[in-house]
Amino acid sequence: MEKEYKCATYPHELLMMNLSFFHLLLPLAALSSGYITLLLSIGLIASIATLLWIAKKAKIHCCKASKDTPLVKAHWQRAWDRSKLLLLGYAISAVIMLLGWFIASSQSDENMYGIILVVFSWIAAIPLILIVFAVFVLATVSLARAKRGEFPKKSAMVFKN
Fold first, then answer.
1. How far is CA 37 from the centre of its chain?
2. Which helix (H) or strand (E) holds 102?
3. What is the pTM of this model?
């Protein structure tokens, strides 16, 4: 039973590691160094790769051929649900940045172009920061449930049958 609970915590721990490293630690390192674009690009790519791996594992664990228990399957699916929120945050930030780029590209003054891009990059970061915080809190709650051997609230009825 303990092993099952530990297996159920793994997807949430992976998601929280993704958030901690690629959204908190790496951006701080990027902002304090001269390699902002490089480090943030690496962090974004690594974060998306981690989220895709969670998606793959959730899909594998939700098929009937998987030997995992319903509890483990439910927690992989819950981690993927949380990951989709993070992907939504990326999409919102990307739309804001594209909007800023379109507005900036219509400027004839080079200084104004740079100012608009900087302003929109800060505005684009806000929804992502809020979603990262929300996903971190939600993943913490799910991790606590997994450690106690409880099913996630939303998917409990689906996997108990």
1. 19
2. helix 70-105
3. 0.84
